[in-house]
Amino acid sequence: MEYEAILFDLFGTLVDDEGRAIEGAVELLRRLQGQNVALVTSCSRALALALLRRAGLPEFEVLVTADDVAANKPAPDGYVAAAKRFELAPERCLVVEDSPQGIHAGRAAGMDVVAILRGREGSFAASATETFATLARFADALQVDPEGRVRI
Fold this sequence. Notes:
The structure is a single chain. 29% of the residues lie in helices and 20% in strands. It is α/β, with parallel strands linked by helices. It has a six-stranded parallel beta sheet. The chain has a three-stranded antiparallel beta sheet with strand order 1-9-8, covered by helices on one side. The model has no long low-confidence stretch (mean pLDDT 96).
């Protein structure tokens, strides 16, 4: 499948509970510079920006936070808002998540979802389109073409 945007979760997907970058996050986001990449998080904008700075991750051109939506995950509002900001149909967006609530939100938004297992059994991610053991393994499988479309 081809996608025109990747929408990332923050906690557990890009940063750990202590606000450090997950292994491979910095490199993956650098590789995706210039592509349609968004951060969709249930935390406030101020906290999201502070966590990105603490982890040494770049700021996102499209950032959708709890401040921007009526309902947080597992509601699809954040992912729908990100797709609208890119002016893309939901099926053109790929969500990268690590929680059941986030997976549900992405699927409810009409998007394919990659679940990052982080050492857990895949059963929590049964509704995900694909699963990867780590963010680094997802990055290895990700292909980006010159037109900015991504494939896994």
